[in-house]
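From the shared-data thread, chain only:
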Amino acid sequence: MTNNEPLLAAPMHAAPAEILLIDAATLSLVDVNSSARANLGYDAETLKSMRAPDIAPSLDEATLSALLAGLGEDIGEQRCLRTELRRADGSSYPVKLTFLRTQRDGRALLLAVGDDLSSELAASTTLAQALAMSEARFNAIVNHTPGLVYQFTLGADGRHAFPYLSDGCAPLLGVQPSALQHDPDLFLRLILPEDRKGYLEAMAVSKISLSAWNWEGRIWIDAWRDVKWINLRATPHAAPGGAVQWDGIMTNITDSKIEQQETLRSRARLAELTDHIEQVKEQERARIAREIHDDLGGNLTAIKMALSMLAARLPQEQPLLLEKATYLDDLVDRTIDAVHRISLDLRPSTLDLGIVAALEWQAREFEKGSGIACVFRSAEREIDLDPDHASALFRVFQEALTNVAKHAGATRVTVTLRRQRQHLTLAICDNGRGIAPADRLKPASFGLRGMSERARALGGTLTLSAAPGGGTIVTIKIRLAPPST
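Structure, as tokens:
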């Protein structure tokens, strides 16, 4: 071509895209626009002497022949090809070339429009590097997490799978991730039979409500011939096709469970010891009360009788002796009253008449001693209750009334005893100032704590609640022994 042969139109020479005009027969570069020359680093004269494979090694004759065959004979049909163009300095850059067949003066030509993909490739490389770094950070976090990070899917047809299992699988479950992914039912078989029902129920609830799945249970680690406690926490979300996928973590809680069970056993032993101590105390009180009543009471009665006989024989002209005898008689009476009172405090004899009579008697005694009106109500006149349980319930009642007298500022107390099938409920309601929640947590609240411990020893519960209109309701509920057959 000559210097003044305008094969590429002026707008094409000024276009930002790289444009090459190639002879379809010889692959010579017929014309190259300014954008392509600037990027390639060649001047126009040098490019006139070059062929397409010189700047694009992949555009050999076979490739261009196949490209021409694909274009056929139609003018305007396009074909795209990704390749690299080589610059004058030997460096290369990626381009996307769009080829069109054209003709000029009976000469078959190829028009190639190139888009420099360097920035796109750089962005793609940067994104790939960022993704790789993100994945590396994720794997580092997951692999250093104490436990097993996992994904679990449950399909609409009931099939399930573990799409992802971290390296914590083998240390936690004793099986390799590949084994669990190949056989997802293996995890269910690891769970002890008595814990499987809870696992499946928790899964079903989480699936239906899409709420967090939190489960604790035991698994059998065959590799170590040992039982391990695990905690499972997972968050569900809907997946395509009606499936549900959980993302979660499993952790080993064996040590904490052992400590928790040991704490519960210690508390149970302590409760048993406390109950035993209370029973021994009640038995000792009953023994001392009997001895005081029988021995001291009997001796004091004999002393009073003998003193009365002596006083009757004193001469009337000895007023000082008569006065001394009267004083001693009064002293003996007061001592008998004290013995009677101490004996009742140790163990009210009314307990021998049954729990209903004992509680009613205590209500009257409280009213007389405190001046606070106390109403006792019971539809039952007799309730068969074990003597130890009767004593414990009576002591709780005494402590509740003592708290009312000391702290409530009440003017009325209503006591209700009712039997409901195999349960006995005692409610003490006052119209006082009530009890604040903080008062229940005070370290020195031994009265409330003792009442609660006694109720627990009876196999029952003690609750505190606000009374309508102000005041407090103390409710003790215990289970009665089944009737003997």
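The chain is about 50% helix and 25% strand.
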